[in-house]
Design brief:
alpha/beta; Elongation Factor Tu (Ef-tu), domain 3; Rossmann fold; Ubiquitin-like (UB roll); 3 domains; 6-stranded antiparallel beta sheet; 7 helices; 30% strand; binds FE2/S2 (inorganic) cluster
Length: 316
């Protein structure tokens, strides 16, 4: 994965726990526009790589902004990112988008909780500027903890529905109210902690077809596996690699000299997706959509496996 050296141009305290970092290229070139909903890999001072959604204006080519919530007990390096000063240099990847706006949708419902607001911010900003029809539901414990609330209240007050400090037991009714009576071709986008996304998904499926629900994961979802892992062969560009039961595809491919990019290694970022030419995939990621998994044409090689003896792959 090629990385870009970027300098911290501005730091803003968006809430008690969240700082935004505006990043510009060290070489002075523009970073380029990005698609709303996209994220980048960030390699901070601790050399740990984590994915952060871009939350600047998607059409601003000069800088990218990421928002980092300080998680003191995690090993993700957020404390080190919080300690950065203006002028410090870190590295980022090019943007990747797993939460694309569906352009033909008649209406968009955005559901965010906590720091899950970050991808929704770029989507809301894009839809707002391009006259997209949307509602943004933002769940947070309080206005003090709701990063970017002021910006959203200023830019799209009619579209914003803040739910601040709403007791958990009221969420179900609130979600039903938000999701009932939507135009037929509505798409739902969500991001937040796993229990929040599970709850939204549970309610949403009563109102919206699953194919119209799009989510950004913070952590890998629990996977149902097909039982015991077994060994299989992988064929890539005419070479055959043997994957034992206790090794991942990506480990074996890299060891054999194949050039496969990875980032999260947990099945949540999509960096390692490859094309499947032949073979039965046992999907174990939280990135591919249900229809992508059912098509059997793509695989995340960091976590997924194969249940047939041979898996033929190509770069994606
Ligand atoms: S490296 Fe992130 S999904 Fe495989």
């Amino acid at each position: 994965m090629s990385l870009i050296d970027v300098r911290v141009a501005e730091i803003i305290e968006e809430s008690a726990q969240v700082k935004s970092l505006r990043l510009v290229r060290v070489d002075g070139e523009p970073l380029g526009v990005y698609e709303a909903g996209a994220h980048v890999d960030v390699v901070g001072p601790t050399a740990i790589t984590r994915q952060y959604s871009l939350c600047s204006r998607p059409e601003d080519p000069d800088s990218y902004t990421v928002a980092v919530k300080c998680e003191p007990h995690s090993r993700g390096g957020s404390e080190a990112l919080h300690a950065l000063q203006v002028g410090d240099v870190i590295q980022i990847s090019s943007p990747r988008n797993l939460l694309q706006i569906v352009p033909e949708a008649k209406h968009h419902v955005l559901m965010a909780a906590g720091i899950g607001i970050t991808p929704m911010l770029s989507i809301a900003r894009y839809l707002d500027v391009h006259d997209g029809d949307f509602d943004l539901h933002y769940f947070a414990r309080s206005s003090e903890e709701a990063a970017f609330l002021g910006l959203l209240q200023e830019k799209c007050p009619q579209k914003l529905h803040p739910h601040l400090g709403t007791p958990l037991e009221e969420h179900d009714a609130l979600l039903r109210e938000a999701l009932a009576d939507l135009p037929e071709d509505t798409h739902l986008y969500m991001c937040g902690p796993e229990p929040f996304m599970d709850m939204v998904m549970h309610v949403a499926l009563e109102y919206v077809d699953e194919e119209r629900v799009h989510k950004e994961n913070f952590r890998p979802a629990e996977q149902e596996t097909t039982g015991e892992d077994s060994a299989f062969d992988v064929e890539l560009e005419g070479e055959t690699f043997h994957v034992p039961a206790d090794r991942t595809i990506v480990e074996v491919l890299r060891e054999g000299g194949a050039d496969v990019d990875t980032s999260c290694q947990e099945g949540i970022c999509g960096t390692c997706i490859m094309e499947v030419l032949e073979g039965d995939v046992d999907h174990r990621d939280s990135v591919l959509t249900k229809s992508e998994k059912e098509s059997g044409e793509l695989i995340t090689v960091c976590v997924s496996r194969c249940t047939s003896p041979l898996l033929r792959l190509d770069y994606y």
